[in-house]
Amino acid sequence: MKNIAVLGSTGSIGTQTLDIVESHPDLFKVSVLTANNNWKLLASQAKKFHPSLVVITNESYYLPLKEALKGTEIKVESGNESLAVAPEYDEVDIVVTALVGYSGLIPTINAIKKGKTIALANKETLVVAGEIITKLAKENQVKILPVDSEHSAIFQCLQGEEHKNMSKILLTASGGPFRTLSKEELKNVTVAQALNHPNWDMGAKVTIDSASMMNKGFEMIEAKWLFNCDPSDIEILVHPQSLVHSMVQFCDGSVKAQIGIPDMRIPIQYALSYPDRLDSPGFVLDWNKVNQLTFEKPDMNKFPLLRLAFESIKKGGNMPCILNAANEVANKAFLEGKISFVMMPEVVEKMMNEISFINNPTLEELVFTNKETREKAQNWVKTHCL
């Protein structure tokens, strides 16, 4: 029996994680659940899975959540500080970091310091502080198991292989809903169109990042840290069918691919059960329905956020932190209708050019960089609103 903390239990990854737990009650037990605003769903989850602790980050929802769980033995806490220490709970074995964006950084660091296994769905943690996180994990002998479908695929392809024999990572991308549109057509796309992903069911923030290809840029940076490779050894391939979740090419020219239906419950389950695999009859790919597998290079001129991601990790230091913070502001502004789709790269590039560069930042300096970038990006948005 593995005791699990799900940080961000009401989001897409969080709810699918609980699906896995429900399917295997003899293997997994929920110990901690956290959410940001959705206290009603959090209360429902808590009544169903009986964790020891629930945390609602938005303190204004503490009292209704507390009232909803009255009569249970579940401990209820609220606020960012409670979220930060939630994964430290003694009984927890695995921490599923399903938080969105920068908010996952500090809780992940605290979990690593306590020796908890990390099932990482929050790619921004490695984007912002990859060097710090990987060093800390090594020092504390902590496993970081990837939950993203692409990184899980790479991880699976590398099982039984020597790292020195890996020559290239082939990171696949669906291309999102705007793959076939021209650069001119992108100027007029709507939020509703951007949220209509052709293959994956994800939260709004990640879905917008997928439409802009920034999500793939983040995944490239995450792969660099997870698999200890140079970004130049990571090739992005647009694969519209989303069946090949990524591949690894080896020194002898051989290529391994992990293939399956586009369902996040597969990589989530593998991270929770690793090194074992669990029976999942509903996840089986019907090969009779696979007509073609195609691959193409991404258009970085049409999707400049992907280019900026490569530039940020090439420069290193606090530049990926700037990239992430500016993108979170731009993503939110687009979702709220304040800026157009093609203005998002403008926000990010301007911040990368204006925020002070730090070559070897400490955690404190990354926290400051994040704050400074957000403030300046928000001011830029205010003066350029549609």
What does this structure look like?
By secondary structure, the protein is of the alpha/beta class. 43% of the residues lie in helices and 15% in strands. It has 15 helices and eleven strands. The protein has helices spanning 12-23, 39-49, 62-68, 80-85, 105-113, 124-139, 149-157, 191-194, 204-212, 214-226, 265-273, 304-315, 319-335, 344-354, 363-383, and strands at residues 2-7, 28-35, 53-56, 75-78, 94-97, 117-120, 144-146, 166-173, 234-238, 244-250, 255-259. A seven-stranded parallel beta sheet has the order 4-3-2-1-5-6-7, sandwiched between helices. It has a four-stranded mixed beta sheet with strand order 9-8-10-11, covered by helices on one side. It is globular, with a radius of gyration of 20 Å.
Key descriptive features of the protein:
386 residues, alpha/beta, seven-stranded parallel β-sheet, four-stranded mixed β-sheet, 15% strand, globular
Helix proportion: 40-55%
Unreliable residue stretches: none
How do the SSEs run, as a string of H and E?
EHEHEHEHEHEHEHEHHHEEEHHHHH
What is the strand content? 15-25%
Q: From the helix content, strand content and strand pairing, which structural class follows?
A: alpha/beta
Mean pLDDT over all positions? 95
Main sheet: which strands, in order across?
Answer: 4-3-2-1-5-6-7
Count all strands and give the number. Answer: 11
Number of helices: 15
Cα-to-Cα separation, first versus last residue:
53 Å
